[in-house]
Design brief:
266 residues; alpha/beta; 2 domains; 5-stranded mixed sheet; two-stranded parallel ribbon; 8 helices; 12% strand
């Protein structure tokens, strides 16, 4: 071995020894850190598994679910997950079409005043609260319909009730918000600046009634409830079927918050 080779060995030996020593010591420290981390995780799991910690987590979860579902008053909301129909597009029968049908199958003459209705009772049926619908407080109409319209109203209301039962939903009744109008009623309604107070209304022929879609009646005293827009999904399905069967015309009224319905049955 020459002098130059010996010199290189002497020069690099300290660097090699230092590198090996550092690697050995570093591996030892890494192993120690890993062990410490494993102990920490085990401690966390052990602490969270204690009965006291579990009780706190469950209680907090129950409060969060309660606040989310009912605002903390204890009521339980029932949701119908059926699709919402395109009401405006599906129920778009124009007023002119309603009047045309009403004139064909309805009263032969329009009552001018409420006293005139007394003389037309042979052509009309009085509608009253029953197991399927209730009649709202009427300010601009009277609770009378032609026999065909009264039958169609009952068919719709009963189909609504049956649909709720078949879907295992809650029991609600429909609310009839407008029925037969006299010329006198139309004049008073127009003075109230109601946008639907037209000079000629299908309501004047006894064939037409309105069902509100923002209110439904329930006599159930349980703490469960349904939102109106969920119930309207069910009502929409019923009206679609009746309309497709050509038993009625339907107009979705945004401003009046109701379905404007004219029976095609004489």
């Amino acid at each position: 071995m020459n002098k130059s080779t010996k010199g290189l060995i002497i020069l690099f030996t300290p660097f090699v020894l230092g590198f090996l020593l550092g690697f050995i010591l570093g591996g030892g420290f890494g192993h120690k850190d890993k062990a410490e981390k494993e102990v920490s995780v085990e401690q966390i799991i052990t602490e969270s598994a204690k009965p006291e910690a579990q009780a706190i987590n469950v209680e907090e979860t129950e409060v969060e679910l309660k606040d989310e579902s009912d605002g903390g008053d204890g009521a339980r909301e029932i949701i119908y997950y059926g699709p919402r129909l395109a009401y405006s597009r599906l129920f778009a029968d124009l007023n002119e079409k309603h009047i045309e049908v009403a004139q064909r199958v309805g009263l032969s003459s329009i009552p001018q005043t409420r006293s005139d209705v007394e003389g037309m009772k042979k052509e009309l049926v009085k509608i009253e609260d029953n197991d399927y619908y209730i009649v709202d407080e009427l300010r601009y109409s009277m609770p009378y319909l032609t026999p065909g319209a009264a039958k169609e109203l009952m068919t719709i209301a009963k189909a609504f009730s049956d649909s709720l039962k078949s879907k295992e939903l809650l029991d609600y009744k429909l609310i009839v918000s407008s029925v037969l109008r006299t010329e006198e009623d139309v004049t008073r309604l127009r003075k109230s600046r109601n946008p639907n107070a037209s000079n000629n209304s299908a309501h004047c022929y006894g064939t037409t009634f309105d069902i509100t879609y923002v209110r439904y009646h329930s006599e159930d005293e349980t703490e469960a409830f349904m939102q109106p827009y969920e119930l309207t999904k069910v009502l929409g399905e019923v009206l679609r079927d009746q309309k497709n069967a050509t038993r009625c015309l339907v107009k979705y009224e945004r401003s009046e918050h109701c379905f404007h319905i004219t029976s095609t049955i004489k």
